[in-house]
Specification:
By secondary structure, this protein is mainly beta. Helix content is 3%, strand content 42%.
């Protein structure tokens, strides 16, 4: 370990005093004058030969010298673990734990899902070796995984029989991200159809009966497929009750929610959604404006946090919304589970996921979608929160170097943000869950902000820019744009 070490444990003698000598070769008996009472020591890697004897007192004879071989071996260097990261659209490199025992000689990373080499080289090969290899350099695997897809909001088209062939479900694809929706008819709600039965068309039917519509997202090159989800659809006779057409993603036995109104947070916890404009809507359309406004309100108080062994999700109320759906899952898994449909309030606490109690050693992801008359009008960002027994921690607060920016039209500025952690000594949830910060502007006619936090002044006026961490903790800055 680089320190001076005693090569043997000092012994004791009856009738005399212990003496020691050190040699570098075996069977190389030292002269008497070389012996001392000090226990021999060594530092470097190698073989040592310790000789010892007892020099007798007035009443005892000396003993014959004896030899003990001692080896100081090379220090064992553990190979670090390289965490994977999910695709973000940007170049990513591996996060390698810092150490004086090795250097990172190659870590180029990449942008797209795949495997990339990380090369580590020992700094002191004379005295150190890898725990599992005698090689000087080790090549480790860094994987960029596909990002998780988010399915469209699918609603059952329950109806009264009228002889016509009609789609069994409706899909609002404004929340769809990362792939293409596929649908199939199944024989029940428990077993998904074979992959070759899915098509991009929503199944249709005309006859009275209950139908099981399965759907999933088939991801693109950069996003993963989702697990199939089933909804039951009923075509009833005119004397039967038609089930409520409540949107759902899977049958769930939810825990009792807490939907009381939350305490209004400080201004820095407000945050709008950066990705709430439906792709098919024109920028100046009324539908797009509705989506943007709803996203700003939803994210204004959005936060995913652990309360003991429970998870709490908060969101901002949206004017005109009559339903909120809360979705959650474990980070690293494709599946999202609909936890609850809430008709009033802006907070939900739950303690079960996938039919089991929450695991506090894992990280949970969640988002909230708002509906008006069964139509999705906006959703929050996806929040990620590490459990209390996880090796990572979450954001407690986001700070910025400036709270106000005054810019002339066409000029730019860079937001400098820093996160205060809930628990010091732990690393924040990694970038495999998403970018460290996400940004959004309340009025892009005044100023826009890119994914790296660069503000560009567009037109005169005042707007707010929000910076929010992975769990939803956020900070608001004000931008004032004046004539050039």
């Amino acid at each position: 370990d680089g320190s001076l070490q005693e090569l043997v444990r000092g012994g004791s003698a009856v009738g005399g005093t212990m003496y020691y000598a050190l040699r570098s070769k075996p069977v190389d008996r030292p002269a008497n004058k070389v012996y001392t009472t000090a226990v021999p020591t060594g530092t470097g890697v190698g073989d040592y030969y310790v000789w010892y004897k007892v020099v007798g007192d007035d009443n005892h004879n000396d003993t014959e010298p004896a030899e003990i071989p001692v080896t100081i071996g090379k220090a064992s260097v553990d190979v670090p673990t390289i965490d994977s990261r999910a695709y973000t659209g940007e170049v990513q490199t591996a996060t390698v734990p810092e150490s004086t025992l090795y250097t990172v000689t190659s870590n180029n990373g990449g942008t797209y899902p795949g495997h990339y080499d990380v090369v580590l080289t020992l700094t002191n090969t004379d005295n150190c070796r890898w725990a599992d290899s005698d090689e000087v350099s080790r090549t480790l695997d860094f994987e960029i995984t596909k990002a998780e897809s988010i399915p469209a909001a699918v609603t059952a088209n329950n109806r009264i029989y009228d002889t016509t062939e009609q789609p069994l479900a409706s899909a609002n694809e404004s929340v769809l991200a990362g792939g293409t929706m596929y649908y199939a008819l199944g024989s029940g709600a428990d077993t998904a159809p074979a992959d070759n039965l899915y098509t991009t068309s929503i199944p249709t039917a005309a006859d009275i009966g209950t139908y099981y519509v399965w759907y999933k997202v088939v991801g693109d090159d950069n996003h993963s497929d989702t697990e199939p989800v089933c909804i039951a659809v009923t075509i009833a006779s005119d004397n039967e009750e038609v089930p409520s057409p409540e949107p759902e993603t899977e049958a769930v036995e939810p825990p009792a929610p807490e939907t009381e109104a939350p305490v209004t947070p400080a201004p820095e916890t407000e945050a709008p959604a950066p990705d709430i404009t439906p792709p098919e809507a024109a920028e100046d359309s009324s539908e797009a404006k509705t989506q943007i406004a709803a996203g700003i309100l939803l994210n204004s108080k959005f936060l995913v946090s652990w309360k003991g062994n429970k998870v709490q999700v908060r969101w901002g109320s949206v004017t005109g919304a009559d339903t909120y759906e809360i979705y959650a899952g474990y980070c690293g898994k494709k599946k999202y589970e609909k936890i609850m449909t809430v008709h009033a309030g802006s907070k939900l606490t739950f303690n079960r996921l996938n039919g089991k109690k929450l695991n506090p050693k894992k990280a949970v992801k969640a988002y909230v979608a708002a509906y008006r008359n069964g139509v999705n009008i906006g959703r929050t960002i996806i929040g990620h929160a590490a459990g209390p027994k996880n090796s990572y921690t979450n954001a407690k607060k986001v700070k910025t170097s400036k709270s106000t920016y005054k810019l002339k039209q066409g000029k730019t500025a860079k937001i400098k943000a820093v996160t205060v952690k809930e628990k010091n000594g732990k690393r924040l949830v990694g970038k495999s869950h998403g970018p460290e910060y996400r940004y959004a502007s309340s009025d892009e006619n005044v100023a826009v902000v890119d994914k790296k936090g660069r503000i560009k002044a567009v037109g005169t006026g005042t707007c707010n820019i929000w910076i929010f961490a992975q769990n939803g903790r956020s900070r608001k800055v004000t931008v004032r744009v004046v004539i050039r």
